[in-house]
Amino acid sequence: MSEVTNCPRCNALFMQNKFRDVCETCFKEDEKMYETVYRFLKMRENRAATMETIINQTGVDEELLYKWVKKGRIQTKLFPNLGYPCDRCAKIITRGKLCEGCTDEIKQDLQLHDANSDWKKKMSNQGAYYTMRDK
Ligand SMILES: [Zn+2]
Ligand SMILES: [Zn+2]
C-alpha cells in the first residue's frame, strides 16, 4: 500500500510505502549516512562503540541510528552497545518494543484488569488504554 504524503524531514511530497518513510532525496541521504556508519562499525576497533561515539564520529542523526537498530539493519548481536529507546520510558533496549520493567508493569496492570471485570468492561468501551508516550 502506498500513499502520497509529506516527507517528515523536508516536507516534500512523496509516495510513502512500507520501505520508505521519507522522500527520495532524504532517503538517498539516509543511505549515504548508513554507508558512513556501516564503514565506521566495520573497523574492528569500533565494534564496541557506543551510540554516543558513533553519533559523534559519523554525525549520524540519533533517531536514524535507532531506526536502523530497531529494523535490524545494524545488529545488536554484533554491536552489543547499541540499542533503541523503549516505547514507554525511553530506556535503551535491544529487542521488542518495551523494556523489561515496562513489560512487567503492563503485565501486572493486565492482571489487575482481570481481577475487576466490571472495570475491564468499562475500559474496553473507552477504547485503547495504553496510549503512546508523548515525545
Ligand atoms: Zn525529504
Ligand atoms: Zn520502558
Structure description:
The protein is mainly alpha-helical and 135 residues long. It has a domain at 86-126. Helices cover 46% and strands 9% of the residues. The protein contains 5 helices and 4 strands; from the N terminus they run E-E-H-H-H-E-E-H-H. The chain has helices at residues 24-42, 51-58, 62-71, 100-115, 117-125; strands at 3-6, 13-16, 84-85, 92-93. It has a two-stranded antiparallel ribbon with strand order 1-2. The protein is flat and about 55 Å long. The relative contact order is 0.08. The model has no long low-confidence stretch (mean pLDDT 87).
Brief descriptors of the model:
135 residues, mainly alpha, two-stranded antiparallel ribbon, 5 helices, flat, binds zinc ion
Can you give me a brief rundown of this structure?
With 135 residues, the chain is mainly alpha-helical. Helices cover 46% and strands 9% of the residues.
Strand order of the largest sheet: 1-2
Low-confidence segments, ≥5 residues, pLDDT <50? Answer: none
Question: What are the distinct ligands in this entry?
Answer: zinc ion
**Global structural class:** mainly alpha
Contiguous helical run count = 5
Order of helices and strands: EEHHHEEHH
Largest sheet: 2 strands, antiparallel
List the helices and strands and how they pair.
Elements lengths: L2 E4 L6 E4 L7 H19 L8 H8 L3 H10 L12 E2 L6 E2 L6 H16 L1 H9 L10
Antiparallel strand pairs: 1-2, 3-4
Bound molecules: zinc ion (2 copies).
